[in-house]
Amino acid sequence: NAGVMQNPRHLVRRRGQEARLRCSPMKGHSHVYWYRQLPEEGLKFMVYLQKENIIDESGMPKERFSAEFPKEGPSILRIQQVVRGDSAAYFCASSPDANYGYTFGSGTRLTVV
Amino acid sequence: KQEVTQIPAALSVPEGENLVLNCSFTDSAIYNLQWFRQDPGKGLTSLLLIQSSQREQTSGRLNASLDKSSGRSTLYIAASQPGDSATYLCAVKITGGSEKLVFGKGTKLTVNP
Predict the structure, then answer these.
(1) Residues 19-48 of B with CB under 8 A from A
(2) Beta-strand relationship, B30-38 and B107-112
(3) A100 in B contact zone (CB under 8 Å)
(4) Which of B43, B49, B102 is opposite residue A105, by nearest beta carbon?
């Protein structure tokens, strides 16, 4: 079991470009979560998804950010028209259901220049 | 609103010392509590998961306790080693339909040889 796979590990984007972050959950895990870690800040919840459904997006900024977890393929966190303040580490986690703890991926470190 | 606080923010100890990391949370209505380890520039590694009905969990040299009524958890590390140097994060899963974790900002531990 390869664990939670995130790619790319590092991503550099110029202001105004789009960033697409991918997450493949552990085999058998149907719950996917995205968290953001800003420099010197704790991890903050962004969105919780199950296959083809967004369950809780209360932590997502209202504009420019979107997430999906299609029937086939990885979960995608998409940031449009990136700004410097989007620079952060974005972590994906998965779990088989609510009774279990999370398994985190290694993260994608986004740098906006 | 659930808030998680970790004290101290940083801790430096000599190798071999036993130590305790503290975590407190403001709302006792939690589903579970999870301790993670984060190495610089890396993802999160789950250490221990305590369900709300449990009082403690043990794994090797690690022991985590949970006192839900007082809103506290401790992570005890026995016979610390330089390889234990990392940031330790405490997170609670809140109840009420959401599956999000609320994280503390962590305790940065340095174990000196």
Answers:
(1) 31-32, 34, 36, 41-46
(2) unpaired
(3) yes
(4) B43
Shortest Cα–Cα distance, A112 to chain B (Å): 17
- In angstroms, the Cα distances linking A98 to A101, B38, B82 are 8, 23, 34
Give Cβ neighbours of residue B3 (< 8 Å, ≥ 6 apart): B25, B26, B102
Does the beta carbon of A105 lie under 8 angstroms from any beta carbon of chain B?
Answer: yes
- Copy the structure tokens of residue A20: 């697409």
Q: pLDDT digits over B44-65, tens only?
A: 999 999 999 999 999 999 999 9
Q: CB of B100 within 8 Å of any CB in chain A?
A: yes
Nearest Cα residue in chain A from B91: A43
Find residue B33's DSSP bridge partners.
B50, B92
Q: What is the strand order of the sheet B72-77 is part of?
A: B4-7, B19-25, B72-77, B62-67, B56-59
What are B107's two structure tokens?
């305790």
How close are the terminal C-alpha atoms of chain B, in Å? 41
- Per residue in A82-110, pLDDT tens? 999 999 999 999 998 877 888 999 999 99
3-state secondary structure of B2: coil
DSSP B100: -
Say if the Cβ atoms of A102 and B106 lie within 8 Å: no
